């Protein structure tokens, strides 16, 4: 399993997931830079993703929906804030309605994904920062740790 550590810190309002992959940084970058590859790993196996828009540039937007086992669709978006190919990118990650308008009733997180060379492969750090303890607790209660971990753990299969 690629995920090696998960930490949530209510004081700093962060959720940090660390993972390690037996692939170079540039290959892990491609998983996120290519919408067809991103679809294979964004969302847990029970909720596969469909990427609708994919502009991984500062100011760009990625929109997607995940489809649950019952056929219900859950939409979301990334608003890209910074890109340093192939080592990092930052974005706001939010829930959306079916037209990809932000859902103001659910938390938005500021995310920073970094990829560094480690032991001949890549160490990835996924850090999400929330606006309040309540927002972080809300996503924790929604199963974000389990969902994100199972999604990240799909990357090994994609790389094989």
From TrEMBL:
SUPFAM superfamilies: Bet v1-like. Residues 22-159 form the Activator of Hsp90 ATPase homologue 1/2-like C-terminal domain. Belongs to the AHA1 family. This is Activator of HSP90 ATPase. The lineage of its organism: Bacteria, Bacillati, Actinomycetota, Actinomycetes, Mycobacteriales.
């Amino acid at each position: 399993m690629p995920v090696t550590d998960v930490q949530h810190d209510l004081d700093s309002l962060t959720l940090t997931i660390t993972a390690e992959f037996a692939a170079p940084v540039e290959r892990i970058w491609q998983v996120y830079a290519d919408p067809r590859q991103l679809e294979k790993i964004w969302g847990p196996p029970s909720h596969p993703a469909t990427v609708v828009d994919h502009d991984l540039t500062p100011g760009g937007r990625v929109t997607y929906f995940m489809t649950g086992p019952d056929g219900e669709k859950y939409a979301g978006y990334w608003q890209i804030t910074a890109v340093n190919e192939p080592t990092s990118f930052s974005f706001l990650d939010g829930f959306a309605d079916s037209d990809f308008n932000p859902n103001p009733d659910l938390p938005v997180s500021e995310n920073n994904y970094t990829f560094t060379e480690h032991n001949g492969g890549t160490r990835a750090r996924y850090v999400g920062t929330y606006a309040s303890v309540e927002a972080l607790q809300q996503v924790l209660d929604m199963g974000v740790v389990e969902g994100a971990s199972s999604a990240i753990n799909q990357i090994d299969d994609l790389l094989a």
